[in-house]
Amino acid sequence: MNIRQLEAFHTTIETGSVTLAGERLGISQPAVSKLLRSLTEACGFQLFTRSGGRLVPTLEARMLAVEVERMFSGAKRIARLAEAVRNREWGEVTIAAPPALATLYLSNALSPFLAEQPDIHFTLQSKTSPRIGELVAAGQIDIGLSVLPFDHPNVSAEVIMRFSMVCILPAGHPLTGKQVIEIDDLRNEAFISLFRDDCSLMTIDRAFQLKGVQKRNRIEVPLSETACSFVANGVGVSIVPPFVGLDYPEDRLVRRTLLPETFMDVWLLTPNGRPLSLASQKLVDFIRAAVAPFDQRDDMHRSLQ
């Protein structure tokens, strides 16, 4: 008993005709008949009888056909899986990103990609940047997005975005009359600040210190999106990445350019020494496109020329 015999048997059962089976398989009718005869000998019982010129499977053949159908269905699933892997439509991908990216922006940005790739199992973790580097180095995640570089022999690091922080104000705040907010404008404003271990807070505090301005922290929150909520409710002002708070309308939250510009980088961290899966590679390409609207590296390059 071999696969070619079973293929002839399966196709004959499906088509109900040796001639049609031969056409589907691309072989002659006598060749199909020969395969069926050899399978009958291997089984030791009759597979088909003739009735009114038609080929009718015996009870034993119908029992055998159930198992053969399962075998060919499994082969088809394997073929579909191989095609999906080849087309990067299947796999498991785990990403870790800082809360500012993971809380809302990445879920919105990556949803179209994931909707078109239903066979990809996707996990998104919210971690601090130092922890993200450690997870990539240990091979526990496939892709890391970090606002800090990570120097490790097991990690490949590449800047994929440089963004400038923006100032957010409640609608109706006196400073909304200005198109550009300077650090000095925030001298006496109630400030919604992130926790002290947040990497962006260090960048913001440094900007205030360089201008000699004392930041008046009123509320500390764990997430930039939480800061946006407080600002939208009129409790204070804040400074956040440009991809945060995008779902708030201007009648609740106003975004303004901040001077001096306060830049931060986003690093793409991947395991060094083992290739990314096809699904991970495709997702990396999509992430590059998702962050491109906020990438100011080209603008900085042009301003220096």
TrEMBL record:
Protein name in the entry: LysR substrate-binding domain-containing protein
Signal peptide: none
Domain HTH lysR-type: 1-58
Keyword entries, A-Z: Activator, DNA-binding, Transcription, Transcription regulation
Pfam families: HTH_1, LysR_substrate
Domain of life: Bacteria
Keyword Chloroplast: no
UniProt record similarity statement: Belongs to the LysR transcriptional regulatory family.
Entries under PROSITE patterns matching the protein: HTH_LYSR
Biological source species: Neorhizobium phenanthreniclasticum
Keyword Acyltransferase tagged: no
